[in-house]
TrEMBL record:
<dbReference type="Pfam" id="PF06703">
    <property type="entry name" value="SPC25"/>
</dbReference>
<keyword id="KW-0256">Endoplasmic reticulum</keyword>
<dbReference type="GO" id="GO:0006465">
    <property type="term" value="P:signal peptide processing"/>
</dbReference>
<comment type="function">
    <text>Component of the signal peptidase complex (SPC) which catalyzes the cleavage of N-terminal signal sequences from nascent proteins as they are translocated into the lumen of the endoplasmic reticulum. Enhances the enzymatic activity of SPC and facilitates the interactions between different components of the translocation site.</text>
</comment>
<dbReference type="GO" id="GO:0005787">
    <property type="term" value="C:signal peptidase complex"/>
</dbReference>
<keyword id="KW-1133">Transmembrane helix</keyword>
<dbReference type="InterPro" id="IPR009582">
    <property type="entry name" value="Spc2/SPCS2"/>
</dbReference>
<comment type="similarity">
    <text>Belongs to the SPCS2 family.</text>
</comment>
<keyword id="KW-0472">Membrane</keyword>
<dbReference type="GO" id="GO:0045047">
    <property type="term" value="P:protein targeting to ER"/>
</dbReference>
<feature type="transmembrane region" description="Helical">
    <location>
        <begin position="39"/>
        <end position="57"/>
    </location>
</feature>
<feature type="transmembrane region" description="Helical">
    <location>
        <begin position="69"/>
        <end position="87"/>
    </location>
</feature>
<protein>
    <recommendedName>
        <fullName>Signal peptidase complex subunit 2</fullName>
    </recommendedName>
</protein>
<keyword id="KW-0812">Transmembrane</keyword>
Length: 173
């Protein structure tokens, strides 16, 4: 059994639920996609490469000899930093999980949030990358944690199964 959490700490409960998502959705035949994380890593490593290049040029050739190059590198650094900010704020948002169903190939993105001092876990399902297929649900955290603070993964699995089944029924209508 996992480590108990303080069920009165909303951030701690949300963190445990976020960490449980991949294993729960794997049992529902979803394979996790790391595309958003990969893009964020590529941008971040590019920023580090630009900063490293700037440092090495300055160190090897001297500050006065590389001012033109430094201006270009600073512009690149600014552009990549702005791109990373935009990506995190508008593309990645609060996406906790992205995956694809192994049998029918449908894609799913799950965003989660919570409000302080409320035992509610807000879950937004986006099917096949379209806003038309966006469904918002609320999970009462008291339903998936016992009194001792242990996550009841079977109950969490059943709740996600129920939500995904409901979404499929709505999509077909």
């Amino acid at each position: 059994m996992s480590k108990p959490v303080n069920v009165y700490s909303t951030p701690e409960v949300a963190k445990v639920l976020d960490e449980a998502l991949p294993s729960v959705l794997e049992t529902l035949n979803y394979k996790e996609s790391f595309k958003l994380i990969d893009i964020k890593l590529i941008i971040g490593y590019s920023i580090a490469a630009v900063a490293g290049t700037s440092f090495l040029l300055d160190k090897k050739l001297g500050h006065k000899n590389v001012i033109a190059y430094q201006e270009i590198l600073v512009a690149c650094y600014f552009f990549l930093s702005a791109l990373l900010w935009y990506f995190k704020k508008y593309i990645e948002k609060s996406v906790t999980y992205t995956g694809q169903h192994s049998q029918n190939g449908s894609k799913i993105a799950i965003s989660t949030s919570y409000e302080e001092a409320e035992p509610k876990y807000y879950v937004t399902f986006v099917k096949n990358d379209t806003k038309d297929e966006e469904f918002k649900r609320v999970l009462e955290t008291t339903k998936v944690f016992n009194e001792a603070g242990y996550l009841q993964t079977k109950l969490l699995h059943d709740w996600f199964q129920e939500q995904l089944d409901t979404i499929e029924i709505k999509k077909d209508n």
